[in-house]
Amino acid sequence: MSTQGGGSAGNVGMYVGRDMLAAVPEERRDDYLQLVQEISDLKYQLGVEVARQLPRLFEEQDDEAIERYLDQVRAIADVGWKSGVEVAKQLPDLYHAPDPTIADSYVEIVTEATVGPPDDDETRAFAGELEDLERELREIEPKQQRAAELKSLLAARDRRDERRRKHAQELAAALPPILARLRPKHRDCYMREVRLVAAADPEAALEAANTLLDLLNGERVSHDGAAEWTRRGLDVLEKNKEVGRGYFRMGSKYSLEVLEELREGLALRQVARVLKLYATALSGRDVAVRGVDEMEAVDRFGPDHIILPADMRFFDDDDRNFVAYKVAAAHGAARIEFGTYRFSLDEIPETVADLDARYGMGTR
Amino acid sequence: MALAHVRNVRQESGVDGDVAERLVKVAEKVRNLRTHGLEEGVSTRLLVYAGQMIEGGVEPVAACEATICRPITDDLEMQRSILELVNTQF
Fold first, then answer.
1. Which helix H or strand E contains A288, and what residues bound it?
2. Which residue, among B58, B27, B55, B54, has the nearest Cα to B43 in the 3D structure?
3. Environment class of B57 (CB within 10 Å of its CB; exposed 0-12, middle 13-18, buried 19+)
4. Residue A323: closest CA among chain B residues belongs to which residue?
5. B85 touches chain A (CB under 8 A)
6. Is B71 helix (H, G, I), strand (E, B) or coil?
7. What does the pLDDT average to over A86-107?
8. Cα–Cα distance measured from residue B42 to residue A165, given in angstroms and rounded to the nearest whole number
9. Which of A268, A273, A274 to mutate to test the interface with B (most CBs of B within 10 A)?
10. Which of A139, A140, A62, A133 is nearest to A95 (CA)?
11. In angstroms, rounded to a whole number, what is the distance separating the alpha carbons of residues A201 and A211?
């Protein structure tokens, strides 16, 4: 530890003044600073007072007195640093008292006064009880926090359940008129998908009920497509209710993208009337256009039916898919116009007779 | 096909015989739709208008859409059906 020029090193410099250091014999300054540092490590205020008093003792060059002084300061500091500061201030004067025992007696009095009488049973009991209570309080604190969290959580769930019941009621009112508009063939698919959404979120189910009606009745998706569209919407709903409701309202870009991805070509139902009018105009006969899914309901080779695929997905765009439908419809119209399906085995003898009459012998 | 009809359209509009025949064919096909909500067929006057527009440089399908499809019905699907007939002819 350097002491050159009356300076100081480390924290000691904060309470060792130039004049204090100058009062210490030069060859003892390192010792002085080291001792002050040791005492100040116990308590800063103690270090300040010791730094003030030690130069006197160093001046007297009585190492025994210095050691005694520091021991007594440390001892009193153990029981109370404030008393220690006062003792550190007074002790050097007492060392010069006529009675050499007076300093020791002084330290004992102050020590006993600081420490006080030993604890009685009642005090120890109080302390023990207090310690137990404080431990219990420390243990109960996390439980109180958890209880508050649970209260908040349950209150939020109550509010959510209330909203859920309200939207379930709205769904109950909205579904019957929607079901009345739903084509019977879509009923199973529709009920299954709406039920899935309703179980997750009745508010989203209100949106899904309308959207699925349009998608299925408009033949914009197949039943598998509707299931996939619903499944992806439920994934969105699980992550974010509001975004999920937007999805089922067809109000999100993602919803439209999924629908576009699932769309299965041009549905015959969308263009059936145009094709019927077109074929009727071409053939001059009142034709009916039917999908292959309705084949059971019609005479497939009847004279006035054109059977076409339920959806046309030969091309990527609807315009060209419509042209494909148109070609098929024109072909069907031509068969009707020129009597392909009017052929009957019963007419064969008559036909042979006609051909024989027209072209002569040899026709068989 | 009524040749007189074709001749009238050709003479009144100035289109050649092939275009006049196609126009008359459209009119004949549209006539098949009378029982499907079309109250009136395509008159010769409308065909002449179409021919005049074609003769004036308008693309035939566009001319027929303006003079035949739209004037005779408000039914969009009917209009589209007639337009598809026009597309088939031209």
1. strand A288-291
2. B27
3. exposed
4. B84
5. yes
6. helix
7. 90
8. 60
9. A274
10. A62
11. 15
Report which residue type is found at A36: V
Reported as a pLDDT band with limits 50, 70 and 90, residue A361 is: low
Which of B82, B6, B3, B86 shows the shortest CA–CA distance to B44? B6
The angle at the Cα of A224, spanning A223 to A226, to the nearest 5 degrees, equals 65
Please say whether the beta carbons of A15 and A40 come within 8 A.
Answer: yes
Contact A286, A304 (CB under 8 A): yes
Which positions 15-54 of B are in contact with A (Cβ < 8 Å)?
A: 29-30, 32-33, 35-36
Nearest to A268 by CA among A228, A311, A319, A229: A311
Q: pLDDT tens, B23-81?
A: 999 999 999 998 888 888 899 999 999 999 999 999 999 999 999 999 999 899 999 99
Of B35, B81, B88, the CB nearest to A274: B81
Q: What size, in residues, is chain B?
A: 90
B-interface mutation test, from A266, A276, A278, most B Cβ less than 10 A away: A278
Closest CB to B33: pick one of A275, A280, A330. Answer: A280
Please judge whether B81 and A281 are an interchain contact, meaning their C-beta atoms are less than 8 angstroms apart: yes
pTM: 0.46
- Residues of A within 8 A of B77 (CB-CB) are 273-274, 277
Helices (H), A116-240: 121-181, 187-200, 202-217, 223-239
Any A CB within 8 A of B81 CB: yes
Q: Rounded mean pLDDT of A215-237?
A: 90
